[in-house]
Design brief:
about 400 residues, alpha/beta, five-stranded mixed β-sheet, about 35% helix, elongated, Bacteriophage Mu GpT domain-containing protein
């Protein structure tokens, strides 16, 4: 069921402009109507032409270009208010943008934790690991524990595009085209965010980890989060191609033996690391699924076959992204990652995806026949707070 011009006109007359806009919002969100009935409408069930004529008047006499031919402009004569039309149009476009944004698939949100923020650049406070607990004798004071200043900086980016509502789009009722464009912008925004996250996790440009404000390479042998290459600890200097469960066990062993807490005093303790995610290029995805989903493993030694339970069954969630393959990183199709990504990577969410409205100024209205302009944008960025929770393994 569509909302036509006469329905719009009658509803506005009965409720007033403000209440009409609220009803449209409720219809798009699927809220209960005043009579208690539940009903939901899709943006496609509205028409810009009918909205204009129902809320304002005939397009032949009320569009800006038509008013420009009159001896007396209607607003000066007491007549035209486009605010309800602009408000409803924003709701329609926002609904299409959000639908497009939400339908776009991706794995980025599995790799990051969300951090709401209000600033483009922030210092995320942290501290080096404090000394362990000490025995306290009866009647003696507890020793104070010190913390050394430690922080990383974040840097977010604002991205967006404009959608202009022209007189022709109203007169010719190009509602469908505008909603398709809005949906595509939503999908592209989600895709852009996804690509930003994946490239950051890969440390593509070495700018996601900024200790004390300085962009620093994330995966290095010195950080003890890069193995399968020269310079790594003994036993882990050659490539580890992902082939069977023992390759996963090698990484778990490496982390347990080498990656420790960072106290100011002492050598530190092993980190309790239970990595939930195996992050792979598409070329290794099937291998990863086989290694983590198989319930049993067959092994043949000197013509004797042995079957045993798969020790890695169900232990890791395997995810993959095509952005790994096109990253341009040397060895990207053979390298793999194991870790607790959400403890290391954070998405700084300053402005989630949103649609803003702005009435067209005189220049837009006169030079481009624009009735209203809408802005689709998001504002955010990725950063890493630590180096100990994700290991990159060179596979070739």
């Amino acid at each position: 069921m569509s909302m036509r011009r006469d329905d719009i006109r009658a509803l506005k007359k009965d409720l007033g402009a403000v209440a009409f806009v609220q009803v449209v919002r409720d219809l798009l969100e699927g809220h209960k109507m005043p009579n208690g009935a539940e009903y939901k409408m899709r943006p496609e069930e509205f028409s810009l032409h009918d909205l204009w004529e129902g809320l304002i008047g005939p397009v032949e006499t009320t569009l800006p270009s038509a008013r420009a031919e009159m001896l007396i402009d209607l607003p000066e004569a007491g007549g035209i208010d486009t605010s309800a039309f602009i408000a409803v149009t924003r709701l329609l476009l926002a609904s299409a943008v959000i639908a497009g944004y939400n339908e776009q698939v991706g794995v980025g949100d599995l790799l990051v934790s969300r951090m709401p923020s209000k600033r483009k650049i922030e210092n995320v406070a942290g501290f080096s690991d404090i000394e362990g607990l000490k025995t306290v004798q009866e009647g003696m004071p507890y020793e104070d524990s010190s913390m050394a200043d430690k922080y990383v900086t974040t840097e977010a980016t604002k991205k967006g595009r404009l959608i202009s509502i022209t007189e022709d789009s109203i007169r010719e009722d190009q509602t469908g085209q505008l909603l398709v464009r809005a949906g595509n912008l939503g999908r592209k925004a989600r895709t852009d965010r996804e690509k930003t996250i994946i490239n950051g996790v890969l440390d593509l440009n070495s700018n996601v980890y900024r200790p004390s404000g300085a962009a620093t390479a994330l995966y290095t042998v010195g950080n003890l989060n890069l193995i399968g290459t020269g310079g790594a600890p003994a036993g882990f200097t050659t490539a580890i191609a992902l082939q069977d469960w023992t390759d996963l066990q090698s990484v778990l062993q490496f982390h347990a033996e080498n990656v420790k807490t960072d106290p100011q005093v002492g050598t530190g303790d092993p980190i309790l690391w239970a990595p939930p995610i195996l992050f792979l290029p598409p070329a290794l995805e099937v291998v990863g699924l086989r290694l983590t989903n198989a319930t049993s493993i067959r092994s043949t030694i000197t013509n004797q076959e042995t079957t045993f339970n798969n020790p890695m069954a169900g232990r890791f969630k395997v995810i993959s992204s095509p952005y790994i393959a096109i990253s341009g990183i040397a060895g990207a199709n053979a390298d793999w990652y194991l870790g607790d990504f959400q403890k290391q990577f954070f998405w700084q969410d300053i402005i989630p995806i949103q649609v803003l409205r702005a009435p067209a100024d005189a220049a837009d209205a006169f030079l481009r026949d624009v009735v209203a302009i809408f802005k689709v944008r998001y504002y955010g960025g990725l950063f890493a707070t630590d180096i100990k929770w994700v290991v990159k393994i060179k596979g070739a």
